[in-house]
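Translate sequence into structure tokens.
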Amino acid sequence: MIREYKEADLERVLEIWLSASIKAHSFIEAEFWESKVSDMREMYIPASETFVFESEGEINGFYSLYENTLAAIFVTPGAQGKGIGTLLLNDAKSRRESLQLAVYKDNCPSISFYEKHGFISMNEKVDEHTGHPELIMEYTS
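Result follows.
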């Protein structure tokens, strides 16, 4: 089930974010992601509207919205490929008329996932933190 994030979920959400970020972004050093955990804890999660996917008492994924931006969507690596990401994304889409996101150009599986779910590439930019190119993608219902 998808439910609203609670403060007690924070450590599990951070664990999912870190492990999934390292797996999805092998083209960026793991140390970069590790150095961003405190920013996620102190800035990004508190500023966002976050929802978690929980099954049998365990959180296996989450997404965060910041205004009309899908700021994060992650599934724990061991649970990927089981439809959790699709459930999370559909829930996010149901909460906004349009969504925008940034995804690294080198993250081909995620780009394909977003395209499959109706997102289209609108623009390209370079991530100021990593120097890697990103696609700006948008979905409109």
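Note: The mean pLDDT is 97.
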